[in-house]
Design goal:
The chain has 192 residues and is of the alpha/beta class. It contains seven helices and five strands, in the order βααβαβαααβαβ. It has one domain (7-92, 126-190): Rossmann fold, CATH 3.40.50.1240. 38% of the residues lie in helices and 13% in strands. Helix 2 packs across helix 3 (61-73) and helix 4 crosses helix 5.
Length: 192
């Protein structure tokens, strides 16, 4: 796949109470924790230069709150953020709301697959190929027809969605996606 002609920054939302407790969130709509709001504001300050021209965000609260912090730090109108369900985290099926220990005791085979780096469909998980099919078009649509010289595009999303975007845009075979770098909570990485 050809890379979009923009500087693209993939940002991950800040921490939540569930992340502190070690719970898988997936599509469950969890807001940022107090720590998450603080770290999102810090991320916003770090990303304000060069000025983002566009900010895209998952429709889940934790990503929207992080995107709003980025917009405010850059002096942009938060109402201009493009919100899309296509940028949501991977649906994690029966894993949502549960801890690693709980999943390891009740979904042993799936947990072993996940630990081995399997990004496929199991235990009701959506799988990263499906995540890429819904997330990449959202990003490419925002880049279409706009030359790189117009600026920076910040995409606020989630861990697994970030991996799906990075893997697809960098044209990396899916078998290697589990080894890709991913921004930590309230961190970002520039793709190009």
């Amino acid at each position: 796949m050809a890379a979009p002609d923009w500087e693209i920054v993939i940002a991950r939302h800040g921490p939540t109470e569930w992340s502190r407790a070690g719970r898988f969130s997936g599509h469950t709509d969890i807001p940022l924790s107090a720590e998450g709001r603080t770290r999102a504001a810090e991320l916003g300050r770090a990303l304000r230069r060069p000025l983002p021209e566009r900010i895209l965000s998952s429709d889940l609260a934790r990503a929207r709150q992080t995107a709003t912090s980025i917009a405010l730090a850059a002096g942009l109108d938060p109402d201009e953020i493009t919100i899309s369900s296509g940028l949501r985290e991977e649906s994690l099926g029966s894993w949502e709301g549960r801890t690693r220990a709980q999943i390891a005791s009740t979904n042993r085979d799936g947990f072993a697959r996940w630990l081995s780096g399997d990004i496929g469909v199991f235990d009701g998980r959506e799988g990263l190929a499906a995540v890429a099919r819904r997330a990449v078009p959202v990003l490419l649509d925002q880049c279409a027809g706009r030359p790189r010289s117009t600026g920076r595009l910040v995409v606020v999303t989630h861990a697994n969605t970030a991996v799906a975007l990075i893997g697809t845009l960098a044209d990396i075979p899916r078998g290697q996606w589990a080894d890709l770098p991913c921004p930590g909570p309230a961190q970002a990485m520039v793709l190009w």
